[in-house]
Structures are given as structure tokens and as C-alpha cells.
Amino acid sequence: MNFDWNHAKAFIVTAELGSLTSAAVKLSSTQPTIGRQVQAFEDELGVVLFERTGNKLLLTETGQVIYEILRPMMGVAMEASLAAHGNVHTMTGRVVIAASQIDALYRLPEILKKVSELEPGLRVDVEVSNQVSDLLAHEADIAIRSFRPEQNELIARKIKTIPVWLYASSTYAEHLNLADDQGGGSAAMRKARVLGFKDNTQVISILNQSGWQLTEENITTSCDFQPLQIELAIRGMGCVFLPQDIGDNHTQLVRVFEPLGPPVEIPMWLVCHRELNRSAKVRRVYDLLIEALLEEGSRAQK
Questions:
Q1: Is 254's pLDDT higher than 90?
Q2: Is 3 exposed, middle or buried (0-12, 13-18, 19+ CB in 10 A)?
Q3: Could you tell me how far CA 266 lies from the centroid of its own chain?
Q4: In angstroms, how far is the first alpha carbon of the chain from the final one?
Q5: CA dihedral 59, 64, 68, 70 (to 10 degrees)
Q6: Three-class SS state of 156
Q7: If you write DSSP's letter for every residue of 176-216 in order, what string do you get?
Q8: Is 62 within 8 Å of 41 (Cβ atoms)?
Q9: Common-topology check for domains 93-159+267-301 and 162-265
Q10: Could you give the C-alpha distances from 58 to 9, 66, 95, 205, in angstroms and in order?
């Protein structure tokens, strides 16, 4: 059976994202166009691929089977694009870096300034999200991550391991009365307000395994936008988890519960697609990132 690959691609991306609008954004198209392409694909195959539940599109049983068949084809198409892209040996063009909110806000500005000065012909775009970008699908060329990727097609270099501490405003730190806490901070921890995330289960579990005594009652405000957490902490609304190099540079914040040690340590990995390692422009940005992040780590240890 013949079908239009553009229709199939619209179907695959819609299936992955669950909405025509999201698929349109990812494919740089419009919602009506993606809708027409998905409908055309259903007509070409003679089957119903989605069940429409409110604003959400759910795969039918047949749709799931077809998605599982076509998804590898999408990967092959991306690999072909990567191979062609990777063979470009030039210092002009676009390189995309995927980074978390914290990395983008506090680590990348100086690095991007240096890249701009050294390689003015390059355009560097930054995808800012705490979600993991799919390098295999070419959502980004390089990613700064807090874990080592499992895919063999990706190369990764560990840059450093970063202690994460709780920080608070001086006023709130005094309110906790840590100096008079004979338990090294454990009593204050039970009453401390902590700025949390959308899902705090794993954070609480990890900390409590290390001797902390956090419960959901300690979480007074939650959001996944870390710059807001920092601003709330500065205003005395609780304690915020921050990497040491970033928290220590915030003059309006101080470490709290130091006797308990850093609640957690997180690795920093720089990740790139193996094929893109042949691209001069991506290699150049990759090398500049490594150089700057290693230098930053050395300064933080002094």
C-alpha cells in the first residue's frame, strides 16, 4: 500500500505528543495542516488511528500497531538526515544546545558569549526545558544532562559531580534557629519550609535515606520553574535546592543544614550524537562547552 511519508510523519509525531497542536509546533507547521495530514493518512490506510477524548488524541489498537511499525522508519529517516548533516565541515550554520532552566540561566550566558566572539558565523539556539531532549530525533545537537545516556548512538563525557545544598535567605535561616539546634539541624528540618517540585516523592525518598526527615508537610510551594523557586527563597518563603556553584554565587542566599552534608550530588554530562561528532561546527561548540564547564568546575573547587 502506498502512502505519503509526510502524512505518516504527522501521524507519528501526533501519536507521540498526543495533540495536533503540539505536533504542529514540533514540525514547524500549523494545527489545521497536521490535522489534514493525519486524516489523509487514515484515509490512505482505510483505518481509524485515533480516538478523540476531549483535547487529547489516543491511539486506537490499530493505531498503536501501525505506530510501532513506523517509528523505526522515522528513526532511519533521522539517521539519514544526521549523516548528511554531520558531513558539513564549516563554521557557519546552526547548532542547538538543550539545557535545563538552571544551566541555561546561570551557566550558558558566558559560554554563548565566548562562542559568539570566537565563531561569529555560528548561530547557537538553546532549547530550555527540564525535560530530556531526544538527540536521536535531532531535537538538539548537544545536551547538558544530569545522567549518562543509555543509547549506544550517543556519546557522552562526564564533566563533574556537583553537590546540591539547601539555600535560604539570611532572614529565614535565622528563623530556623540552626545555631541553637543541638541535633545538628534535625529539629529545624522538621519545621523547615522547602520549595519543591511538581513531584516530590523521589526527592523526599532520596533525602530521607541519607538521614533527613522531610515529609510532604515540609513542601509549602511547588513548581518546576526553578528561577521562581530562587526568587521565593530570596523573599524568605523557604529553602531551595541548588547546585553548589550556583547557590554559593547568590549573595542573597546562604547554605542551611550544612552539618548534614549536601542532600544529594548530581553528575553533569555533555551528550552529543555520534554522527554529529563529524560536524566541525558541532565539534567546535562541544569543545568550547567542555572547556568552559571544566574551568567553571575548577573555580568552584577553589
A1: yes
A2: middle
A3: 14
A4: 65
A5: -60
A6: strand
A7: HTGGG-TTTTHHHHHH--EEE-S--HHHHHHHHHTT----G
A8: no
A9: yes
A10: 16, 13, 34, 33
Strand segments (E) across the chain? 50-53, 56-59, 93-99, 122-128, 142-145, 154-168, 194-196, 219-222, 240-243, 254-256, 264-273
pTM: 0.65
CA distance 87 to 33: 32
What's the confidence (pLDDT) of residue 236? 94
User: Taking CA 220 as the corner, what is the angle to CA 215 and CA 222, rounded to the nearest 5 degrees?
Assistant: 100
| CATH H superfamily, domain 93-159+267-301 | Periplasmic binding protein-like II (3.40.190.10)
CA distance 93 to 112: 15
Would you list the domain boundaries of the chain?
5-86, 93-159+267-301, 162-265
**pLDDT (tens digit, 9 = 90+) per residue, 70-98?**
877 776 666 666 565 555 555 788 899 99
Residue in the structure block whose three cell numbers are 566541525: 280
Q: Is 76 left (phi over 0), alpha (psi -120 to 50) or beta?
A: alpha
Q: What is the pLDDT of residues 116-172, one digit of tens each?
A: 999 999 999 999 988 777 676 667 889 999 988 887 778 889 999 999 999 999 999
The DSSP bridge pattern shows strands 194-196 and 154-168 to be unpaired
Q: Give the span between the Cα atoms of 19 and 16, in whole angstroms.
A: 9
Cβ atoms < 10 Å from Cβ of 69: 9
Largest CA distance in the chain: 77
Do residues 183 and 257 lie in contact, with contact meaning Cβ atoms separated by under 8 Å?
Answer: no
Q: What does CATH list as the number for 162-265?
A: 3.40.190.10
